Amino acid sequence: MANPQDYITTINPTWCQGCGNFGIWAGIRRALVKLNYQPYQLALFHDIGCCGNGANWYNTYGFHSLHGRALPAAVGAKLANHKLVVLALTGDGGGYGEGGNHFIYTCRSNINVTMIVHNNQLYSLTTGQASPTAAPGTKTKSTPAGSLEVDFKPLQVAISCGATFVARAYADDMQHLEMVLEKAVLHQGFSLVDILQPCPTFNKSQTRQWYQDKIYHLEDQNWDPKDKEKALAKAAEWGVRIPLGIFYQENRPTYEQQLPQLKAKTLVEQGAKPVDIKEFLAELK
Question: CATH classification of 4-257 is 3.40.50.970, yes or no?
Answer without folding.
Answer: yes
